């Protein structure tokens, strides 16, 4: 909250507009999930479940040390090694979206200065996207598109394949949750 107050104060000092322009989390998570292969999805779910169920040995001191160090870039490094397909939707697309919203938001239309509050990990990517934009960026490239269920898709049984994939995913999630419940109940 302190960062937003500082941004408001800075914007008032220079006569700038403030833009709150991050991509909706639902779109980011959907695109991230869809970017993963099935083996990566299973590995990610397993990692999250084991992280939730395992006792935490991290002390308050080590937590503070990790938040003050360059842990953002260490996280990106680990992420790019373990789940490289997540970098595009979680980092690069959001950097581009943030840059786009800073440049083209309705709040900015008649303003020469803009103040945006972005995370440290997105700073370089947003600056790059601002400098590299040639004006041909389309909004739909940034927010994603819903699949269109045309007659061609129905004829090719695309919806059946999607239904089966969703059923398989939900079954795996159900089994993992059941196993987690049994572990908690028994332990």
TrEMBL record:
A Pfam match: TraB_PrgY_gumN
Reading the lineage from the top rank, the first entry is: Eukaryota
Protein name in UniProt: TraB domain-containing protein
| Source organism of this protein record | Rubus argutus
